[in-house]
Amino acid sequence: MDSPGSSVSTRTTRTNPFAGPDHVLIRDLNILGRVPVILDHHTSTYYAWKTYFSLVFREYNLRDHSAGSVDSRFMVNDDEWMTINATLIRWFYTTISKDLFHTVVSAEDDAHAVWTKINGLFTDNKHQRKDFLHGEFFACQQHDSSIDDYCMHLKKLSDELRDLGEKASNELLLSTLTAGLNDAFGNGASNLALITDPTFLKDEDGAH
C-alpha cells in the first residue's frame, strides 16, 4: 500500500499541466479507433484523415512530435520520447494504403518527417489534386447508393476541396446534389421549393 505522501505525489504528477504525454498510454492506444479511415490517393479521405490525427495530437499532447518543434536528433537518449516517436510512425503507416506506404517509407525518418511527407503528397500537387476532385464532384451521381451515402460522398469531396482552398458554396452543393439524384428521388428537386431558405443539410434531411 502506498504511503499518503506517495499518493499525493502521484496525483500531482498526473495533474501537472506541463507533464509530457504518457508513453505507455500512447503506445497501447488503438489508433484505428481514433482514426477510422485509411488514406488513399484514389479516395476523398485526406481531409478526414488529417482532421482525426490533428484531434489525436491535441488530445494526447503530441504536437511536438508531429510539428517538429522538438528536434528528435537531440532526443535519441530519451527512451520515452523515442517510444512515442516510433508509435506515431507506426500509426501513420497503419492508416495509409499500401501504395502510399511504399511511397513514403524510410527507416531514417522521424514522426515529423513521415507526417510531412504524407501531407505533402496531397498538398504539394494542389493543381492535380483539384482537377481530380473537381471531376469527382461534378460527375457525382447517386446511382444505386443510398441517399445517405450519396450525400456523404458529396460532403467528403467538398471538404477535400475546401482543404485545398476552394470552398464549395451551399448553392453549388445543392445543385450538384439534386442533379445527381436517381429516379427514385426525382421529386427531391421539386420539393426544394417547399423548404424555406434551403441548405445542403436541410435538403439532405428532406430527401429521406
From the N-terminal CA to the C-terminal CA, the straight-line distance is: 60 Å
| Mean pLDDT across residues | 80
**Strand residue percentage:** under 5%
Number of discrete helical segments? 13
- SSE pattern: HHHHHHHHHHHHH
Question: What is the approximate shape?
Answer: elongated
What does this structure look like?
The chain has 208 residues and is mostly helical. It folds into two domains: 21-123, no CATH class; 126-206, no CATH class. The chain is 61% helix and 0% strand. The protein contains 13 helices and no strands. The protein has helices at 4-14, 23-27, 31-34, 46-59, 63-67, 79-94, 98-104, 111-123, 126-138, 147-163, 170-179, 188-191, 200-206. The radius of gyration is 22 Å and the shape is elongated. Mean pLDDT is 80; it is low at 1-18.
